[in-house]
Amino acid sequence: MLIDSIRHQLRSIVGEAYFKDDPEALVSYSYDATPMHQSLPDGVIYPADTAQVAAILRIANEHRIPVIGRGAGTNLSAGTVPVAGGLVMVMNRMNRLIEIDRDNLTATFQPGLNTKQFHQAVEQLGYFYPPDPSSMVISTMGGNIMECAGGLRGLKYGTTKDYVIGLEAVLPSGEIIRTGGKLYKDVAGYDLTKLLVGSEGTLAIITEATVKLLTAPTYKKTMLAMYKDIYAAARTVSSIIGQHRITPSTLEFIDNPTLRVVEDFNKIGLPLDMEAILLIEQDGSDEATIDADIEKIRHICLEEGAAEVQLARSAEEAEKLMKARRSALSTLARISPTTILEDATVPRSKIAEMVIAINDIAKKYNVNICTFGHAGDGNLHPTCTTDARNPEEIHRVEQAFEEIFEKAIGLGGTITGEHGVGAVKAPYLEWKVGAAGIELMKAIKHAFDPNQIMNPGKIFAKPSRKRVVIQH
Amino acid sequence: MLIDSIRHQLRSIVGEAYFKDDPEALVSYSYDATPMHQSLPDGVIYPADTAQVAAILRIANEHRIPVIGRGAGTNLSAGTVPVAGGLVMVMNRMNRLIEIDRDNLTATFQPGLNTKQFHQAVEQLGYFYPPDPSSMVISTMGGNIMECAGGLRGLKYGTTKDYVIGLEAVLPSGEIIRTGGKLYKDVAGYDLTKLLVGSEGTLAIITEATVKLLTAPTYKKTMLAMYKDIYAAARTVSSIIGQHRITPSTLEFIDNPTLRVVEDFNKIGLPLDMEAILLIEQDGSDEATIDADIEKIRHICLEEGAAEVQLARSAEEAEKLMKARRSALSTLARISPTTILEDATVPRSKIAEMVIAINDIAKKYNVNICTFGHAGDGNLHPTCTTDARNPEEIHRVEQAFEEIFEKAIGLGGTITGEHGVGAVKAPYLEWKVGAAGIELMKAIKHAFDPNQIMNPGKIFAKPSRKRVVIQH
After folding, report:
1. What is the ipTM of this complex?
2. Alpha helix segments (H runs only) across B125-272
3. Domain named FAD-binding PCMH-type: which ranges (chains A, B) (predicted)?
4. Does the pLDDT value for residue B467 go beyond 50?
5. Where in chain B are the domains?
6. In this predicted structure, what is the pLDDT of residue B465?
7. Residue of A128, A269, A338, A407 with fewest CB within 10 Å of its CB?
8. CATH topology of B219-313 equal to that of B336-428?
9. pLDDT tens across A122-153, in order?
């Protein structure tokens, strides 16, 4: 609970309507897209501009009140759950697309801007911003930046980190910094821009960002390769990129259980008798090159044992396939009370081995795990359909995921490819970065946030307020 | 001077032959490629492996001895000059190319590996590592990483930062950390990899690196556009990339004074009656697309007022042109006792304005400044031919560069695009990042290096040991 004088100060910064601490507001911001994590904040605040963000942070810093920056809350690591209470700072009033600079191929915007709206604005002018998290219809660009969002085009085009070149950010002290700029090269001191991208709200609140844009590819082709043997599908991934040196813009893996629920929801004729499919897209400016790539990929798929390969006959059909893939999480969420999606990531050459391991581990712990994901990146999403009301099963699920993380690390991989550490994976971070890495990261955190007010309880493992579980 | 017991300890780590403190060794490592900066170290040490690096750092940390990591010393910011004495740690024994992983499209190597040798090893297998600093025949990959080297292909392919995905590094405490891996996506905690790239040896010593590789482009075309009007050349840059949305792999600007010395040295028939030339290259896998791009670029150049456009008739001719461009610094260095090369960088759309400003400033201070550089990136290299023996002239040169940095910042640019801050630009860093930015960077430095032993006197301005100037 915030004391009256602080509530008064906060209201005087943002105006009466933009600070809330009624029970409805507190409950609304007590959870995000992550299942089984909930904790009430002490207040919700909606700043209108950078000056307000700075004023709020100064007060929070003085009184040691936790501040949890939040966009649309679509993250899957409990990254915006206020596990230590405090103020949820909702950035949705700061949602302006400030500029698309055609000479410099950059766009500048506020963090609350919706990702899909940004894509559309950019694409209307013939430009291209590749990062396309599956949540993009709802998520915000600020959230994408704080989590370093990936998506289906990461293989060829990289992730959010590869595009952010300038930031305005407010430190917990209320000081405003500007990093980078409309610059493709800048080595003036340490790279604070890339450090802030993916920092999960634990270092600063970003209030403006500048990203690089690309010229939109003018042509693309989409195909489905279907497999009776799940490991043949996984092997195909290495073969296309490693041995044959083709980098498709999208190379997605979907196993049979995922296929079934996606088909059930989308009704687009996915082959239910297959053990796995690969959804492959190539894009670019030259039709002949892309057609040739797709033809080569078709051959490779068949060589590696695909039962069938189908080319999308139209842009609409291709779009339907991509949309179906993007719906995987939401459709899986419909078939069970609780759906836990992970993003263990391995070197691409280890995809087949990882798929085998996931299936073995699921069997060992008698839990139901579907797997889909960005196979070209080595970024898989093993997804467990379970029921949070069954603590015994949940315990087995936790053991299974723990073993999946361990396996990923063992294969030279990581505990999270694109979802972030948040509260969910904090206990496992040391497996990846070591004790010295954790100490270093804590010291960096301290450099930005000596009073530990920025999104406490995230990234670094520590005992947190007991979680309240809500069913959906 | 190191006391006997420490010298003894250091020798017992690396062996008698690999610690030196005779006058010849000390003088050899008292300077780098930066003119007018020199300072003697107290010793020079050549570790053979990571364990030796760790053992050396532990001793240095305990006794507060500065450690200056060094590759080939080709940097231009006095980044490897031991301004506070201490130990120069030369990495050239750790020069092994450990692995080229074809399945994962990565290469792993030790920091002392020569850049050109690495390029050749990669290219022999049909792969491509884009960063190509002009110093690459001499420079090391470790030096490239510590300075975040750019080069002629940065416009289309980015810089070193865009390729490094994993590091092994030794902290001043002697602890060894591993960041990233053979992973295209990894958001497990703060991005220590990108923070270390470009950190100029002030945070840690890297002992191993993993970089992404690309498939080599199979076709390229090179052209020269020649201008009687220097500003028409600068305008062409914006027009090609901004208005016509073509991103060439190389887009270099060379003004007449640079042209004259480059031609004098290379004798390849550059047009001495032109005020400026653009050297343009496009590459890729599809001949028709590249031919079409080059044809469009030719039109744009003529439209913007090029007096003449010439296509390279052969790969040899193209290679000669690129080699001539890369020789700009070394040829300019031949015509005057002292050559100071800078790398102020602006948003690409401001190139014409920046070229005008540089020429005006040179006139104002009556100094001789030639300008060439990576125009497509907005990364210019105004280069002053002067004489360090003339303090009055040197003072005017310093004033001129100060005004150039100020102008670059005013245009939304930065004080350094690819050479680093080092000792040379430390006094100007605050102009770019602000007082709050400096404080934050100092706190990050402290997080890694609480005893301030790692390459002290670099990045952050402070009174340094008086410099001894050597003529060349």
Report:
1. 0.95
2. 141-147, 154-157, 192-196, 230-238, 256-266
3. 37-216
4. no
5. 4-90, 97-215, 219-313, 336-428
6. 37
7. A269
8. yes
9. 999 999 999 999 999 999 999 999 999 998 89
